[in-house]
Automatic annotation (TrEMBL), chains A, B:
Domain of life: Eukaryota
PANTHER family in UniProt: PROSTAGLANDIN REDUCTASE (PTHR43205), ZINC-BINDING DEHYDROGENASE FAMILY PROTEIN (PTHR43205:SF35)
Lineage: Eukaryota, Viridiplantae, Streptophyta, Embryophyta, Tracheophyta
Pfam family, one: ADH_zinc_N
GO cellular component terms listed in the entry, alphabetical order: nucleus
Keywords noted in UniProt: Oxidoreductase
Alcohol dehydrogenase-like C-terminal domain mapped to chain residues: 95-229
Official protein name in the record: Zinc-binding dehydrogenase family protein
Gene3D superfamilies, A to Z: Medium-chain alcohol dehydrogenases, catalytic domain (3.90.180.10), NAD(P)-binding Rossmann-like Domain (3.40.50.720)
InterPro entries, alphabetized: ADH-like_C, GroES-like_sf, MDR_fam, NAD(P)-bd_dom_sf
Keyword hit for Oxidoreductase: yes
A GO term for molecular function: oxidoreductase activity, acting on the CH-CH group of donors, NAD or NADP as acceptor
Length: 274, 274
């Protein structure tokens, strides 16, 4: 039987690696199971968690974990944000998107997000500080929707979905716009029968840069990320929305739910209480 | 009647701009006509040509003109070439592509070009110094063709065509590869009924950068370009292939021929003898 893994938190029971002592909490790639055998040599992102009374432990999975760091590294290192830039984020209420938008606001940008339900749009505008948000499922034409929110065009598009949203964004980028390619979870992107991206030609005359990235290439700035984002959180400058499923039995449904957008915020599965 | 313009050379007959004197040769955006009225204020790239006995005048249209400068700026400023890089160039025998490949060879790269006829493939290998070249019209599958020439992948793709060649290149890029988006003349790129680019998702896990550019953004390095490329030519390190049509009457056919690849090398229309 195939062992399924994911980014998780675990308490060390026993260890022969002196960097990890019994009682420590670690994050890393961990099996979907109650007890895991982890090899630090194979688990390049295994790290000790510094517990902090002011921060929920689960935030080390999302806000302070791989998702949050993806947002931080992608926005700061790929998007070259400047004060006043117009920023568009897709899957804006997701584990990554919600931090991208809040970082963009802290940079003094105008920020619009798209999501797949009315409830998520409300969260984006009322809790996460997005200037505007829209439900892409209610839009007959994504190009028209983007022109409504960005009449002068988009400087930065943080793309979590690919497909027709990326195609519409290409039509609405400003000259020298930047597109961070972070994820392409849309069904169109994953299907071989999809129609593909048709507007890439606009990258030439608009001198656009599209760049794919993985957070694992930026681990040298992880300490800086942790320090800054913890501070923003403690100062009340950012918030984080989680969707917690209780028990390992719900893990498969929680995973499948990601593809239909059932989760609201970072999907967490709690296998055991602290 | 619409006036048609293109990048051309002309001799000044009369001028009230003191930068241009009767007898000077200028290059810039010029009408398809025997006599043109040019306004230097509207013609941002109008410039005086320094004649040189060792260099054919027509080379200031291609090798030392907008096409050559597109190759130079795109390759040096967008592609970040390093010695030993594997470089792929499409439309490699064209006005831009032929210089890209030769610059890449001067950088110590391995260079492969694609073109649309057996004759062009021979020119690429025997005259322009490409390591390998292939006729894309003879390939059943472009992905297979690229894997044959780049078993370890492509570092730099200088894209002059877009469409299915770009899609195949995306599948064959190395991690941190760079794609300069220079032109998309393929029929697939221009047709709204095309199938679009389906492999852009690979830009995420391979951390690719795709960047569109226009030579006009790099005019500050034009003097450096002119100095370097003139020197390479005089030292015999680069050559340039032109396809000259005689007389303005042939201009429409010469233009249309570009889209079927009828020209071999830079297409020039000679309106008048020097």
């Amino acid at each position: 039987m195939q062992r399924i893994e994911g980014f998780g938190l675990a308490r060390v029971i026993d260890s022969d690696d002196t960097n990890y002592k019994p009682g420590d909490i670690v994050s890393g790639i961990i099996g979907w199971e109650e007890y895991s055998l982890l090899r630090s040599s194979d688990n390049l992102q295994l790290r000790n968690i510094q517990l902090d009374d002011d921060i929920p432990l689960s935030y080390h999975l999302g806000l302070l974990g791989m998702a949050g760091f993806t947002a931080y590294a992608g926005f700061n290192e790929i998007c070259c944000p400047k004060k006043g830039d117009s920023v568009f984020v897709s899957a804006a209420c997701g584990a990554v998107g919600q931090l991208v938008g809040q970082l963009a606001k802290l940079h003094g940008c105008y920020v619009v997000g798209s999501a797949g339900s009315k409830q998520k749009v409300e969260i984006l505008k009322n809790e996460l500080g997005y200037d505007e948000a829209f439900n892409y499922k209610e839009e007959a034409d994504l190009d028209t929707a983007l022109k409504r929110y960005f009449p002068e065009g988009i400087d930065i598009y943080f793309d979590n979905v690919g497909g027709s949203m990326l195609d519409a964004a290409l039509l609405n980028m400003k000259v020298r716009g930047r597109i961070a390619l972070c994820g392409m979870v849309s069904l169109q992107s994953l299907s071989t029968s999809s129609q593909g991206i048709k507007n890439l030609y606009s990258a030439i005359y608009k001198r656009l840069r599209l760049e794919g990235f993985l957070q694992s290439d930026y681990l040298h700035i992880f300490p800086q990320f942790l320090e800054n984002v913890k501070r923003y959180y403690k100062e009340g400058k950012i918030v984080y929305v989680e969707d917690i499923s209780e028990g390992l039995d719900l893990a498969p449904a929680a995973l499948v739910g990601l593809f239909s957008g059932k989760n609201i915020g970072k999907q967490v599965v709690r296998v055991a209480k602290e």
